[in-house]
Automatic annotation (TrEMBL):
<protein>
    <recommendedName>
        <fullName>NADH:ubiquinone reductase (non-electrogenic)</fullName>
        <ecNumber>1.6.5.9</ecNumber>
    </recommendedName>
</protein>
<keyword id="KW-0520">NAD</keyword>
<dbReference type="Pfam" id="PF07992">
    <property type="entry name" value="Pyr_redox_2"/>
</dbReference>
<comment type="similarity">
    <text>Belongs to the NADH dehydrogenase family.</text>
</comment>
<feature type="domain" description="FAD/NAD(P)-binding">
    <location>
        <begin position="7"/>
        <end position="333"/>
    </location>
</feature>
<keyword id="KW-0274">FAD</keyword>
<dbReference type="InterPro" id="IPR023753">
    <property type="entry name" value="FAD/NAD-binding_dom"/>
</dbReference>
<feature type="region of interest" description="Disordered">
    <location>
        <begin position="423"/>
        <end position="448"/>
    </location>
</feature>
<dbReference type="GO" id="GO:0050136">
    <property type="term" value="F:NADH dehydrogenase (quinone) (non-electrogenic) activity"/>
</dbReference>
<keyword id="KW-0285">Flavoprotein</keyword>
<keyword id="KW-0560">Oxidoreductase</keyword>
<dbReference type="InterPro" id="IPR045024">
    <property type="entry name" value="NDH-2"/>
</dbReference>
<dbReference type="InterPro" id="IPR036188">
    <property type="entry name" value="FAD/NAD-bd_sf"/>
</dbReference>
Length: 448
């Protein structure tokens, strides 16, 4: 890096940050990509990592490896914690709590969203979300350990608690998780236990709406509902989870009816998202408006009002109802890179136009729903289309081939190749022998 070229600081290595930095890789600027995990994670497949189909390495790639041949792109490990717009400087925190400063001429905030518990942060201790690799591994540990613990218990209410799984939120992630757990219980684990019958495991799916996958057409949601019911998923609509504790959940009807308790030892949360702390801080110091979830209002070119050098892309961009999907982040990243290039060339910026490339949700083996403009598919065709779309956007040729190979093996056989999970027991005081993860819970609490 020359040191005298324009400095572009990109915060977040998700789809938005990745595509923006890639497009600037041959431009006469110096790019710094700051990410708190130093890897790009393919979030749409996190649930397959959580349920043992895919490994961490198949859905993630080192950012340093990704930009190995982009000599003007530097990747740094750290979490943005403070923004000084007047000095054009961001302060970041390393994992050891030390801090360092990064100056910029252009700032691209692509930090994404985190799981929202709607003010009930205490739920997080018992109900992990699905936004990070840590979340996926936590869910894997909870799901597979639940079956293992049930195997050592006599028949009765306590065993039933361990064989009951509650999922909050019937959007794509909730539907995919619920379907995968039932498929896991009825197919992959069906013949591996002696004391329990895994196929008797109950999966309860709760949502405040009146149907699953509300962003899809009614015909596709009806199809998804039928498949879920055939799998054995128990659907509960018009309710919200009002309490989560170690041994169960309380569900309250939205119409004001009596609440109901469900005994379960595994609760998974996919019900909402909110801005990460840095995004809320950035909006405050930039004087930008935000919506209820913390999305930052942006101009037509995705810049922040009064700060043409600051862009917000992906889930965080609050404009014209932009959806919180990967395609929005990718297109936003490419648009911002083009805007920076136009600035350097002395040309005017263009307004961002989101192009809806469709939506897809996997339900079970051989069943998925796909919606691309007027094209609507379900069943095996939807499943094939879903697979092709996800393979196309996976980073790294090796990951694509590996994932296809794993999927083919899973189709042919019932087993899942990546079911390993880690418990404590190393002797370290912060790692007692437990199915839960005190270390992970501590990290989540520290972020709040």
């Amino acid at each position: 890096m020359t040191g005298d070229r324009p400095k572009v600081l990109v915060i977040g290595g998700g789809f938005g940050g990745l595509f923006c930095a890639r497009r600037l890789g041959r431009v006469d600027v110096d790019v710094t990509l700051l990410d708190r995990t130093a890897c790009h994670v393919f979030q749409p497949l996190l649930y397959q990592c959580a349920t043992g189909t895919l490994s961490i390495g198949q859905i993630s790639r080192s950012l340093r490896e990704e930009f190995e041949h982009h000599r003007n792109v530097q990747t740094l490990l750290g979490e943005a914690v403070r923004l000084d717009p007047s000095a054009r400087r961001v302060t970041a925190r390393r994992p050891d709590e030390s801090q360092f400063d990064l100056d910029y001429d252009y700032l691209v905030i692509a930090a994404g969203m985190r799981q929202s518990y709607f003010g009930n942060e205490e739920f997080a201790a018992w109900a992990p979300g699905m936004k990070t690799l840590d979340d996926a591994l936590s869910i894997r540990r909870r799901v597979f350990a639940a079956f293992e613990i049930a195997e050592s218990l006599p028949a009765g209410p306590e065993r039933d608690q361990w064989l009951t799984f509650a999922v909050a939120g019937a959007g794509p992630t909730g539907v995919e998780l619920a379907g995968q757990i039932r498929e896991l219980a009825t197919r992959s684990l069906a013949n591996e236990f002696h004391s329990i019958e895994p196929e008797e495991a109950r999966v309860l799916l709760f949502d405040g709406g009146d149907r699953v996958l509300k962003s899809f057409t009614p015909a596709l949601t009806d199809r998804a509902t039928r498949v879920l019911e055939e799998l054995g998923v128990e659907l509960h609509f018009g309710v919200h989870v009002s309490d989560v504790r170690r041994d169960g959940v309380t569900v309250s009807p939205k119409d004001g009816g009596p609440s109901r308790d469900h005994a379960t030892r595994t609760v998974l949360w996919t019900a909402g998202v909110e801005a990460v702390p840095f995004a809320r801080h950035a909006a405050e110091v930039l004087g930008a408006d935000t919506d209820r979830s913390g999305r930052i209002a942006v101009n037509a070119d995705l810049s922040v009002a009064g700060h043409p050098e600051v862009f917000v892309i992906g889930d965080l961009a609050g404009r014209d109802g932009l959806p919180g999907v990967a395609e929005n982040a990718m297109q936003g990243g490419l648009h911002v890179a083009a805007s920076i290039r136009r600035d350097l060339d002395g040309r005017g910026r263009k307004a961002f136009r989101y192009r809806d490339l469709g939506s897809a949700a996997y339900i079970s083996r051989g069943h998925a729903v796909l919606q691309v403009g007027p094209i609507k598919m379900s069943g095996a065709l939807g499943w094939l289309g879903w697979g092709l779309i996800h393979i196309a956007f996976l980073t790294g040729v090796r990951n694509r081939f590996s994932t296809v190979g794993t999927w083919l093996a899973t189709i042919a056989r019932a087993n899942r190749s990546d079911r390993s999970f880690i418990l404590g027991g190393s002797g370290h005081p912060e790692e007692p022998y437990t199915w839960e993860s005190p270390v992970h819970q501590g990290k989540r609490s520290a972020d709040q």
